Amino acid sequence: MENKVYPITFKKDEDYKIGGVSIPYLGEKYGTPLYILDKETLIFQAQKYINSWKKYYKNKYKVLFAIKALPILEVIRIFKNYGLGALVSTGGELYIALSANVPSEDIYFHGNAKTLKEIEYAIDQKVGAIIIDNFDEYEKIKYVLSKKDTKVKVLVRIIPNIEVNTHKSIRTGQTDTKFGLPIEQALVLIEKINTEKNIIFKGIHSHIGSQIFDISAYVKLSEVLSEVYKELNSKNITVEEMSIGGGLGVAYTKEDNPPDIEDLAREVSNKFSETIGHNFKLICEPGRSLVGRAGITLYRIESRKELGIRKYVSVDGGMSDNIRPSLYGAKYSALIITKGDREEIFSIAGKHCESGDILIKDFSGLWPNPGDYLITFTTGAYNFSMYTWYNATPRPAVVLVENGKDRIIVKRENYEDLLGGQI
Description:
Elements: E1 17-18, E2 21-22, H1 23-30, E3 34-38, H2 39-56, E4 61-66, H3 73-81, E5 85-88, H4 91-99, E6 107-109, H5 116-124, E7 129-132, H6 135-145, E8 152-159, E9 181-182, H7 183-193, E10 199-205, H8 216-234, E11 241-243, H9 261-275, E12 281-284, H10 288-291, E13 295-306, E14 311-315, H11 324-328, E15 334-337, E16 343-349, E17 358-366, E18 373-377, E19 397-402, E20 405-410
Helix pairs in contact: 2-9, 5-6, 8-9
């Protein structure tokens, strides 16, 4: 049968494949833990965004890949080839985007604590825009420009005051968020920017959170942006661009029911048609919804333990390669490739010296044997990028699969790599 949620096929004879490649074969060839990415899914998601905005938004639009979700050169190159730009939040992410040959004008730089060094780097590279988060950042940009004969385009990030139903750690649009400025303060900042010769105000930036399932939150955001647009127009300040951010959710478990990308484009475009028309370039900044479901992680089972009150199956990875369950209780689906024949409920534990290193607390499946493989789904986003070398654990390799072929796109680290930079 075919799994309709994830880019993997499997049959009763245990022929498990992704991108036409045998998953056990990949484990034997590259070792585990192993991140595996399906190129076809990456391309499908990118095209879905492009085609959806093209269908519903009647002016210019730009899709920026939020590379914090998966900062891998080959992934960024794939998206660049399908017309996507890049959203970066640090100097390091900017370096990666430029190294992937993303045109500098297609890179937007956001973040709430940019250093002088990062701002100067962005200006020197002539990025498409710096997204100003606060008044101090405005002063930093002025200082950097005072030493240069150049100009920089900017957006200003507002707090839209929209609560979304997602984990508190990934909400970004509520009143007390650390990101952006309240609208009243943002308007004051924009008026200041509008008096500058070398800081060119282009528009408004916003973001309401991550792993969002309710499209109505984006419709409400469109209403807020429309009001800001009207207010600035009344002051004779032109708004050329507005960003609705990213954050569209994906399915991690069978209970999750995320909206379709086309629904987002249709509802947001319709709302702007009602309020201010399509008189500006619309920007969206997906990360998770581009790469999340394209990835799986492959582990090898190392040990089992039956304690009476709880059973454990431990794998050769864990919170080093996927910290999200330990960090904020993220839930995942999994599949075990085993010849075991008895059903059990058990916890899938990582190898690290933390009691909280549990990938899945109550997993129902066949009781496996050491050496069997375990697959966790939807690990394309915020797994590789949030890797930690806790317990001196080398970073796993990343393999890209397509049409029955596989190739490594990030090498596995070795023990010697753990000493990099140490004296």
